[in-house]
Amino acid sequence: MSDPASALRLDGRTAIVTGAATGIGRACAEVFSQAGAHVVLAGRRREPLEEAAAAVGGEAFPCDVGDWDQVQALFEAAQARTGRVDALVNNAGGPGPIAPVAEVDLDEWRACMDANLFGALHCLKAAAQVMKAQGAGAIVNMSSLMGIEGRPNRTAYCASKFALVGMTEAAAQELGPFGVRVNVLLPGAVSGENMDRILARQSQVEGRPVEAIIEDKYVKTAALRRWVDPREVAMAALWYASDASGATTGDKMKVDAGRS
Fold first, then answer.
1. Do 127 and 88 meet the contact criterion of CB atoms below 8 Å apart?
2. Alpha-carbon distance 148 to 164, whole Å?
3. 20 to 30 Å CA-CA from 78: which of 5, 16, 68, 101?
4. What is the pLDDT tens value at each position of the chain, 260 positions in all?
5. Cα–Cα separations (whole angstroms), residue 254 to 37, 91, 142, 188, 236
6. Dihedral sign for Cα atoms in the order 25, 175, 71, 156
7. How would you classify residue 18: left for phi > 0, otherwise alpha for psi between -120 and 50, otherwise beta?
8. How would you list the strands of the sheet with 38-43, edge to edge?
9. Residue 44, CB half-sphere, CA atoms under 13 Å: how many?
10. What are the backbone dihedrals phi and psi of residue 184, each rounded to the nearest 5 degrees, phi first?
């Protein structure tokens, strides 16, 4: 049994992080790189992706996870570096439409499912193919607290993130016999650009100032009375991807500052 510090190391391993240009994805890329992994950062926007990769010492690979051919190319490129893909942080996605269910735009609803669910499925499928063949691997799916608790005006996002929890549990049972672990994180309200955009849209829908929404929905409702920092989510992802959680699969973990 390795010592506690070395169990969290990823030296010599290759990790793919999707949605890696900003927020949680970028934090995961940074933490995994600091833990010794060769990190391949994937995302749709080349310029911020390349900037993030340079900052964390990783490798940028532009990829739209909604396109199966692009996802296959991503995994082939990552595998070509070391012959393996040891970890996947399946993080790419978006907030989807923020609107009452009676008024929500159906095209936007479907687009959210394409990005958050089918994009995650593409990466899960590609990772399963590679990791089954090599007999080991760790997949960390990024759901949300709204993957286990529905919230008003967020039907598309909740549906996609609930589904990702179910996919995780099913895939963990399928892939466990091949030495592949699959777990899912449930972040709460995480500070950053994505949350700023969500707050702006919530303010429009509810007709209230952003500051009032923050206080009522994101500070008072958290036991720790604060936001979650992206790096805190990344540290949980590192635990799932490392040998420290070697007997853990099919699990879900909240990282939400005790939000109720």
1. yes
2. 10
3. 5
4. 467 879 999 999 999 999 999 999 999 999 999 999 999 999 999 999 999 999 999 999 999 999 999 999 999 999 998 899 999 999 999 999 999 999 999 999 999 999 999 999 999 999 999 999 999 999 999 999 999 999 999 999 999 999 999 999 999 999 999 999 999 999 998 877 777 777 887 888 788 888 888 877 777 888 998 889 999 999 999 999 999 999 999 999 999 999 87
5. 24, 15, 11, 7, 9
6. negative
7. beta
8. 59-62, 38-43, 14-18, 87-90, 137-142, 180-187, 252-255
9. 10
10. -140, 135
Confirm if 15 and 30 have CB atoms less than 8 A apart: no
182-206 in b/e form (b: 16+ CB < 10 A) is: bbbbbbbbbebebbeebbeebbeeb
Instruction: Look at the block and give the residue holding tokens 């466990």.
Output: 176
Both structure tokens of 123: 């990466």
CA distances from 48 to 14, 42, 94, 114, 141 (A): 21, 11, 16, 23, 22
Q: What is the pTM of this model?
A: 0.91
- DSSP tag of 231: H
Handedness of CA 189, 32, 41, 141 (dihedral sign): negative
Which one of the listed residues 32, 75, 109, 157 is annotated catalytic? 157
Contact status, residue 260 vs residue 224, Cβ threshold 8 Å: no
Distance CA 182, CA 168 (A): 6
> Is 157 one of the annotated active-site residues of the chain?
yes
